Amino acid sequence: MDIEFYSHYLNALQARPEPQWQYDETKPCGVNYNDTWRAWSHDRCQQGFRDYKAESDQIIALLGLDSDATVMDMGCGTGAFTIHAARHFKKVYAIDISKSMLRRAYKKARRAKLGNVEF
Fold first, then answer.
1. Domains of the chain (ranges plus CATH)?
2. Whole-angstrom Cα distance, residue 94 to residue 82?
3. How far apart are CA 96 and CA 75, in angstroms?
């Protein structure tokens, strides 16, 4: 293949706009919880009107898993479910796209002396 043709071909591929239907999962929509203050504020606000323990206990009961289970909390946020699940299961993987939310969840798990959570 001709080098010049290949070079033009690669440049054309890179210059093409992405299809409009593609969704960028890393791009925040709505509130940007990558801000440390917003993650803290969100957590404090939610604690004011939600009963995390009761909600988590209900989810754990519905899962029907024994204490040797490993669970994954996708979109763990500040660790509301993660913290309670870690007290019931052998291992919990806490996953979130927001580093600030993960940091807050990590601090809460450390304060609760939970060593079975991986962030």
1. 34-118 (3.40.50.150)
2. 6
3. 4
Please write down the long-range contacts of 54-57, taking CB distance under 8 Å and 24 or more positions apart.
Answer: 55/80, 55/81, 56/80, 56/81, 56/83, 56/84, 56/85, 57/84
Residue type, 62: L
Question: Would you call 117 exposed, middle or buried from its count of C-beta atoms within 10 A (0-12, 13-18, 19+)?
Answer: buried
Quick one: pLDDT at residue 96?
Answer: 93
Closest CA relative to residue 72, chosen from 53, 56, 99, 95 = 95
The mean pLDDT value of the chain amounts to 87
Specify the pTM.
Answer: 0.73
- Residue 71 makes CB contacts below 8 A (sequence gap 6+) with 63, 65, 85, 89, 91, 92, 93
DSSP one-letter code for 78: T
Scanning the structure block, which residue is given the tokens 């210059």? 15
